[in-house]
Amino acid sequence: MKQANITIIDFGMGNIQSVRNALERIGCLVQVSSDPREIYTADALVLPGVGAFGEAMNNLTCKKLIKPLKNAVVDEGKPILGICLGMQLLADDSDERGGHKGLSLISGHVKKIPVTENLLLPHIGWNDLLVKKSEPLFNKISDGDAFYFVHSHHFECETNYISATTDYGVYITASIQKERIFAVQFHPERSQRKGLILLKNFVNYVEETISKSTILC
Fold this sequence. Notes:
Layout: E1 5-9, H1 16-25, E2 29-33, H2 36-41, E3 44-47, H3 53-62, H4 66-75, E4 80-83, H5 85-88, E5 93-94, E6 100-101, E7 108-112, E8 123-128, E9 130-131, E10 146-151, E11 153-157, E12 162-167, E13 171-178, E14 181-184, H6 192-216
């Protein structure tokens, strides 16, 4: 089976080195790039991110990454994994700091988490997952396994896109998937062994997709 070539999209925000280290730890061939041409040559993409939604969209625009990213995912069917802010950027829009348009790769809206007086924002720490779709990301991951979160906003979307949730006073969308588009609100690169399993599941999915495409050709 061909080893997948994964490109982490560098738009100037996020925990890129941690994500790269985690992917390399599981034996992945990975590069970090802000070159639109390298989006097209990758087998799959990872969109990480930490920070403000509006600033992230502005950076993607200034680096001329939005059109090649959307073409690669929508037209060419390249698998993509969004992480934390990278998940939120897949939405139609966010209400953060006045409201901003997103990439609209999965229909939904990013809104501030409605917390009770006993809970604080940002939501920081380990939370258990309720897995709704085990394949492909949550293979060998069970209900109750904990992952590391850092966020104040969450992705609201149709339930058929949700593959896992977590409880922080309200049910929060922890992961989403639509065809070859995947995203997680938590940080797998900071979630120890279970996080590495999830990243490996994504890479395995990419390599299986490549193998099937080769056979069809």
